[in-house]
Specification:
The protein is an alpha/beta fold and 531 residues long. It contains 18 helices and 16 strands. The strands form four sheets. An eight-stranded parallel beta barrel has the order 1-2-3-4-5-6-7-8, surrounded by eight helices. The chain has a three-stranded antiparallel β-sheet with strand order 11-12-13, covered by helices on one side. It has a three-stranded antiparallel β-sheet with strand order 14-15-16. Strand 1, helix 1 and strand 2 form a beta-alpha-beta unit.
Length: 531
Amino acid sequence: MRKVEIYDTTLRDGTQAEELNLTTEDKLLIAHRLDDLGLHYIEGGWPGSNPTDKHFFAELVSHSFKNAKIAAFGSTHHPGNTAEKDANLRALVDAATEVVTIFGKSWDLHAKIALKISLERNIELIRDSIAFLKSKVPTVFYDGEHFFDGYKADPQFALACARAAAEAGADCIIPCDTNGGSLPREIAEIMRAVKQALPDVALGIHTHNDSELAVAGALAAVDEGASQVQGTINGFGERCGNANLCSIIPNLELKLGVETIGSDNLQKLTRTASYVTEVANLRPFLRQPFVGSAAFAHKGGIHVSAVMKDSRTYEHIPPASVGNEQRVLLSDQAGKSNIIFKAQSLGYVLKKNDPRLPGLLACIKEREAIGFEYSVAEASFELMLHELLGSPKEFFSFKNFFVVDSKREQDNEPITEATVIVEVKGNEEHTAACGNGPVNALDLALRKGLQTFYPRISEVRLKDFKVRVVAGAQRDTGGTASYVRVLIESSDGAHRWTTVGVSHNIIEASWQAVVDSYNYKLLLDDNSLRP
């Protein structure tokens, strides 16, 4: 079986994405998770460019990796220096990694405009930089920046740059579609030309996603003989991102029969993608192919009915092969098959002739008609299912809440106080709290009333809060009197769940979602109540 090595640049190229910032500690955590995934190379950063990356390489001395080799990244030496005297190259050597990757200009436009040097001098920079590094470092990779644009503008110059890198001893030459504008067929044609010009040189591929073609371009390059693919987890990167390794790896393994990280490691892919997103403190992309939570989610009743018979009817691969799972969504489009599948996945015995099924389906459709969204708020659905099909237990009962917002001329911010009365295990708890707005105040007051009886409530953290006006809902009067839907995403560190509330009153909708969130946590902790 043919093998392709995976070179991850999440910690360097990925961090150039808007809103993505990683500390040294974050980068080390991610590096170890990528190593566990079985990647071959992990680009740690540019040690000469910023304190975070410099600290990262200094910390590596006390860390070991079982699968991956760590690479330091930099550029060819400054035109005003020699390679031996260049601070950037010296920082790469001092990083003390087994692998160093440098980039050089492959487009005459960049040589002339960006560096303001002759084409001959540009080629010298590439040759001298790689020759110097090869005398100090075991493995040196060369990224041909803007190679495909450069080849289209001046094929001879682009090839001369690659040839100089090869002659200087580069272990792999990686043509880069830096602007992300090349079509897959162009990448295939140019890779073929490079292979013909340099038949004995190992080639890689580095693509960007500005035309939504980074994955397709990378796969086209592999078809033409590339033995290394560079990319990032979740496609993080500057502008529209880099080639997404979460799509490239399974396509190579499962569709093209090319070995990368192996089938066992492939099953860790979804968890790894989620972990990197979590450490980066970013929202996950639900519809991301292969690893997104919606990648194998089914909503239409006809689809679900078919999937229950044979998952191949609407799934291009088994979800478990990439560590993902099949999901069935509940909505006003749901048929009986959706309800049965979902109930069975949660452990409830429910068959097509169950007399409770029509009422359950009618309840879901009635609620969704006014704006409830159970396809994303699966925790609220499970609570409803537990109430209608299981043995419902009331962890606490609501008595009263009262919220006061006030703002005086001398106040910088409004003052919000919430009073909550709930009955818990036969005790009436009357609590109050101030918060940053009515929802936060209600949350704090309710939490205060429950924690004495359920200490693990303290583990719950709000991860996201969304408010939407529900257009077209039944009895919707429009404007500020419309129904609003509140979605709250919560976590206790081990689990993550979403709850929903709907009302004309945003505080009431929020209260419903908060109450469901705490009830779901209590349900999770009380295994005796789950089927």
